[in-house]
Amino acid sequence: MKLTRRTALAGLGLGMGFAGAATRARAGGTIKATWNGWPDSQVKPLFDAFNKAHPETAASYELIPFSDLFQTLEVRLGARTAEPDVYSCDSPLSASYGVRKQAMLLNDVLDRGQFSKSCVDAASFRGNMYSAPFSTSSQLLFYNRALFKQAGIEPPETDIARRWTWEQVAEAGRKITDPARNRWGLVIEQAERPYQLLPLGQSLGGTALSDDGLKATGYIDGPAFVEGFTFMQRLYTDWKIAQPGVFDPNVTPDVFGSGRAGMFLGGTFNLGLFRDKYKDLDWGVAPHPYFAKGKPVTPTGSWHIGVNPRTNDKAGVAAFIRFMTSTEPQLEWFKLRPYVPVRLDVWDKLPEVFDTPIWRIIRNEVQTTAVARPSTPGWREYEDLLRQCLRDMQSGGDVKSMLTDTAGKIDRQLLKYRNV
Amino acid sequence: MRAKWWVPFAFLAPALLGLLLFRVVPILLSLGGGFTATDLTGETSFAGWSNYAALADDPEFWNSVRVTLVFNMIINPLQVVLAFALALLMARPGPGVGALRTAILLPITVSIALTSVMWNLLLDPGVGPVNGLLRSLGLPAQPFFHSEGQALPSLIAICTWRGVGYWMFFMLGGLGAIPPEVNEAASIDGAGAWRRLWHITLPLMRRSFAFVLIADTAANFLLFAPVYIITTGGPRGSTSLLMFEAYRAAFTLLDNGRSLAISTVILLIIGAVATLELRFFRVDEAA
Question: Is B67 helix (H, G, I), strand (E, B) or coil?
């Protein structure tokens, strides 16, 4: 093509147009979020509220299903571009994103004192805060009153002092299970994830990883975890009160909700689901079980917000995370999806909710029995390898040798972090 | 009028460009990437043979190689033989052929991801209809994907269910290309169906067999979705195909060099097997 004066002018005009558009966009500020795939109805109100409160910045989001979220973030953050500006960060991955320079240091952006200590711990690695606490979690033992009545068993009580032991859960489960009627004693919401299953060993005094977060051998394959995970294996292989191969947290609540399980060990976020979707289900809750010879330990931690250090709008994202972690949006978030609050002041804002038997249990768990997942930059590798091992254990095999084998694999993966 | 020399290339250009961008360039990047290491912050540096040395010392990698070879040694001949048998069935018009053809071709229309989700539910040990059927027949329920011994055979079964109709198409094309007079002449000379199959059909189908076997081998060595969706390599590494290991190295263990080294190994294995297969058919043709 010959370069004439007309084409040159047209090109210049077009270029200026793009430049102008870019300047306008920058002046306005945009934040793109890669967000966990919660229902849109639970996400949109918070983003709308932010956009209303901060008209100078336009925040938008893309919902990624939970099962694909980590891989998606790995690709997007690994590309080392400015997008996404913010993202849903699983709290134990804060250290991993931090040491890989995929999460911005938030020490000066947020006031740590406004959050529960366990949330700040989950967000931090060696004293530096790499994610903004957005929600935390606790687990409850849900039970189906009708199935307990049919089996002639008294259901567990809400009283923390009369917390059921795992042995009681197994016994009740055996009475309720009826494979011919596709009825199961117990459904575990995230039945292959360390988040949910580490407390089995921790309840017996085990420590899941060394203090420096870099060694699994001697910890995850120690006697406490061998005993705890052997008990878990028996739920599937000996007593057969739990359905093997049912791991998907998108499915497990529905197994309980549809009346096919006597007990459901699941997160507080299911309270709304059972209340709204399964109106005919007659259910109750009790505290998380523990081993008779051990101590109560409950899972905790949940979704935080990570900030991409390469964002083009540092002021905008700072405003975004301050907004999302402030009191009113946190109250709104709680109403949309009842995650356990991360802010201390929120516990006192809704006495009609938090001063009820269910939430008294949860508050107690978060403050006294919750043990965070190990703080390590290699959580992703640790979780994946242990997860595969937990799956395998549920179909039988020698628990000790499987754990020792997995611990060795984890140690090899954690070597790369020894100079961090 | 003779077309100019570049005209055929102009017509082929879009396809060649696609091939270059989506096949040749990624292969070259993979070959080069196998010799690199990426540090925690994403900086890449030359690492020599270290990724390959690490693979050579890794029992998990060797288990994957073993599983991948066993998988391919079973699934490729199985699919080729079944595809040929089905093509023979389809080649002759007869009662019920239309319905049979639909039944065989229907699985091709289902994506491999959907196939995986569907069969995962159908073969579920607890609530799956297949076990329901077994129970109703008085047979014991099977663990399928949840058993170390049954997971790989189950994987082979569902991949064959989906793939065999596709490969049958090529076999059907090959059968159609056999001149009918050759068979007619053999019939007149008194050759029975078995002798015609052995001495006429099979020798004339060599090219079709070669194509289907090589293409099927490449497809099955690159199989990923069912492992990712259903088994994630388990139970106990029994379905840990190399493609899944490559994915896992990159996305879970955050080791791009290892992932690309595994990809290169897969490429080399496919190249070697395809060369052997091609040579086998060529030698036969010359004989």
Answer: helix
Distance CA(B66)–CA(B68), nearest Å, equals 5
Q: Is residue B139 part of a domain?
A: no
Q: Are A133 and A91 in contact (CB under 8 A)?
A: yes
Name the residue of chain A whose CA is nearest to B124's CA: A245
The DSSP string of A188-224 is ETTTT-HHHHHHHHHTTT--SS-TTS---TTTTTSHH
Give the model confidence (pLDDT) of A21-78 as tens digits.
444 444 468 999 999 999 999 999 999 999 999 999 999 999 999 888 988 998 899 8
Chain position carrying tokens 């896992």 = B248
Domains in chain A, start-ordered, CATH in brackets?
28-136+301-369 (3.40.190.10), 139-298+375-417 (3.40.190.10)
**Owning domain of residue B224:** 50-112+151-286
Q: Are A80 and A112 in contact (CB under 8 A)?
A: no
Distance from the Cα of B220 to chain A's closest Cα (Å) equals 24
Contact residues on chain A for B60, CB-CB shorter than 8 A? 409
Q: Do B127 and A416 touch (CB under 8 A)?
A: no
Alpha helix segments (H runs only) across A293-397? 314-324, 327-336, 351-354, 357-364, 379-393
Closest Cα in chain B, distance from residue A311 (Å): 16
B131 against A239, higher pLDDT: A239
How many inter-chain contacts (A to B, CB under 8 Å) are there? 63
CB–CB of A324/A46 below 8 Å?
yes
Instruction: Give Cα separations from A202 to A161, A199, A283, A292, A372 (angstroms).
Output: 19, 5, 28, 13, 11
Largest CA distance in chain A: 92
For the domain that residue B220 is a member of, what is the CATH number?
Answer: 1.10.3720.10
B126 in A contact zone (CB under 8 Å): yes
Domain annotation covers residue B137 = no
**Positive or negative: CA dihedral B26, B29, B35, B39:** negative
- B147 touching A (Cβ < 8 Å): yes
Using CA atoms, how far residue A70 sits from A77, A97, A188, A192, B30, in Å, is 10, 11, 22, 16, 23
ipTM above 0.85?
Answer: no
CA of A351, closest CA in chain B: separation in Å?
A: 43
Indicate whether B133 belongs to any domain: no
In-domain check, residue B45:
no
Count: domains in chain B? 1
Interface test with A, best of B38, B40, B44 (most A CBs within 10 A): B40
Q: Do A168 and A141 meet the contact criterion of CB atoms below 8 Å apart? A: no
pLDDT mean for each 10 residues of chain A (420 residues):
46 44 54 95 96 95 91 90 95 93 94 89 90 95 97 94 96 92 92 95 96 94 97 94 81 89 92 89 96 94 95 94 96 91 91 91 89 90 93 89 94 88
Measure B109 CA to nearest chain A CA, in Å: 24
Most B CBs within 10 A among A80, A395, A401, A405, hence the mutation to make, goes to A395
Its pTM stands at 0.80
For the residues of B227-275, what is the DSSP string, one character each? Answer: IIIIITT-STTTT--HHHHHHHHHHTS--HHHHHHHHHHHHHHHHHHHH
Which chain A residues contact residue B248 at CB under 8 A? Answer: 384
